[in-house]
């Protein structure tokens, strides 16, 4: 069986449909051209590559705090999609519950886009997420995770880390931010997405300088706390990226048994896709 035929859950992707759901006026970046991908087209992509479910992430690009496009997909196809929303840093429990009822399982904090100081007051929100059994998803780069470590520890919220934590390849696996990520992995509080290689690699495809970080994450977190994601439709990507080539990296690095854990079981256990709509 080809990796394209194996059952998969894509744990990080975006929908952008500005004709149907116009971009927010205050969005700092408005994706165009090949960065755009609506629900209908992404469903075709999923069908082409054996992807049965997807965790949609509200993008800061285009929509900022507007989750309408993503939530439309969650409510029109609840068996296929779950979501990670973008919310104000002071979002109330009532706001979070309203999103949760639509299929949202967590909230995204993108310090690689906004910087860490933008999120300096989010600890009360992390506690609210913990109370609702929702996830706090962090996209950090380099050593940014250090600015959140204490808040994460105090709140005990379950954490999703995007794109291997986006380490700096030249600094190796002992760099402070990556070491903080491994510490979270050892505690069992965090789950990491094996994805986004183009966002932190210093090399062209097949991003060979990322392999050592993937191996270390799998070793420390265990496949039960790792999940695969495509990052489709590759917002602000400088190189050309294609879904099939991203999948071939997984085929190269992991066995069939390991791929089932990485590309299905972990995300299904965490987000309950098999029970969606039942």
Structure explained in plain terms:
The chain has helices at residues 39-48, 60-63, 68-76, 93-100, 111-114, 123-131, 149-155, 176-187, 197-200, 211-221, 243-253, 256-271, and strands at residues 8-13, 51-57, 81-85, 104-110, 135-139, 158-161, 190-194, 226-228. It has 278 residues and is of the alpha/beta class. It has a single domain, classed as Metal-dependent hydrolases (TIM Barrel). An eight-stranded parallel β-sheet has the order 1-2-3-4-5-6-7-8. Helix 6 (123-131) packs parallel to helix 7.
Largest sheet: 8 strands, parallel
Question: Which structural class do you get from the secondary structure elements?
Answer: alpha/beta
Rg of Cα set: 17 Å
Secondary-structure arrangement, i.e. CATH architecture: Alpha-Beta Barrel
Q: What is the CATH C level class, in words?
A: Alpha Beta
Count of distinct strands: 8
Strand content: 15-25%
How many H/I helical runs?
12
| Widest β-sheet, arrangement of strands | 1-2-3-4-5-6-7-8
- The run of helices and strands is EHEHHEHEHHEHEHEHHEHH
N-to-C CA distance: 29 Å
| Uncertain spans | none
Kindly identify the CATH topology. TIM Barrel
Shape: globular
As a percent range, the share of helical residues equals 25-40%
* Oligomer type: single chain
By CATH, the superfamily comes out as: Metal-dependent hydrolases
């Amino acid at each position: 069986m080809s990796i394209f035929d194996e059952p998969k859950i894509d744990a990080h992707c975006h929908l952008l449909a500005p004709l149907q759901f116009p971009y927010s006026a205050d969005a700092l970046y408005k994706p165009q051209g090949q960065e755009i991908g609506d629900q209908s087209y992404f469903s075709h992509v999923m069908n082409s590559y054996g992807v049965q479910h997807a965790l949609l992430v509200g993008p800061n690009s285009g929509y900022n705090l507007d989750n309408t496009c993503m939530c439309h997909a969650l409510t029109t196809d609840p068996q296929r999609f779950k979501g990670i929303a973008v919310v104000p840093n002071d979002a109330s429990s009532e706001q979070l519950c309203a999103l949760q009822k639509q299929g949202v399982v967590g909230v995204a904090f993108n310090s690689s886009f906004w910087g860490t100081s933008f999120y300096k007051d989010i600890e009360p929100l992390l506690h609210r997420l913990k109370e609702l059994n929702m996830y706090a998803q962090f996209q950090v780069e380099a050593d940014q995770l250090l600015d959140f470590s204490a808040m994460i520890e105090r709140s005990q919220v379950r954490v999703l880390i995007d794109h291997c934590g986006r380490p700096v390849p030249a600094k190796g696996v002992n760099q402070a931010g990556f070491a903080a990520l491994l510490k979270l992995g050892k505690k069992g509080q965090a789950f990491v997405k094996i994805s986004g290689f183009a966002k932190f690699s210093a090399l062209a495809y097949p991003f060979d300088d990322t392999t050592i970080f993937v191996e270390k994450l799998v070793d420390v977190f265990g496949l039960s706390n790792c999940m695969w994601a495509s990052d489709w439709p590759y917002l602000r990507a400088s190189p050309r990226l294609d879904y099939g080539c991203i999948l071939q990296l997984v085929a190269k690095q992991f066995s069939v048994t390991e791929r089932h854990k990485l590309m299905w079981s972990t995300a299904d256990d965490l987000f309950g896709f098999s029970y969606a709509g039942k």
